[in-house]
User: What shape does this take?
Amino acid sequence: GQSLEQPSEVTAVEGAIVQINCTYQTSGFYGLSWYQQHDGGAPTFLSYNALDGLEETGRFSSFLSRSDSYGYLLLQELQMKDSASYFCAVRDGATGGFKTIFGAGTRLFVKA
Amino acid sequence: DTAVSQTPKYLVTQMGNDKSIKCEQNLGHDTMYWYKQDSKKFLKIMFSYNNKELIINETVPNRFSPKSPDKAHLNLHINSLELGDSAVYFCASSQGETSSSYEQYFGPGTRLTVT
Assistant: This one.
């Protein structure tokens, strides 16, 4: 089967850096995505890592280590608007079709 | 221009009723999905369709029946609604069934409340 683990909550202050970790277990791993969801809103895509290493997009970076089945999302220069839930999601191709399996989400609270 | 749209946004109904949710995407994508997000925000895939064909059916009760009349539309019909069906249902789309088509675009969600 497939499983993902990420912390349920993280709190940080404005201007700080926060890292949200994700470990996964799946048999047909293709890549790891991150999505952001504000309360009452829809998930929106942030990043995708298929290969080991760091991908940077503005204030957000995402890292993957395939050998450790581990990834993280790094948010820099935190702003109040970054308060949201962040989901890691594995792209899995083990069942004959591609499937995206989401983690339970990490709720990020940014304080002034 | 809305990329992925869903109707209705809110749906309140009684147990035992039958209801439908509609989804349309104007992105030219080949693959569409239905997800269920429960009160704990756990987002779980229900179905995926590629070019109108069912690809994934994640052991969803057969009271749920998706229909894709064309690749831009994926509707969800739910029979005999139960209290446990209360959730937010998201439609999403992606370019296609390839390893590189990883980005999914989500609709605004339909909040279903069964009383």
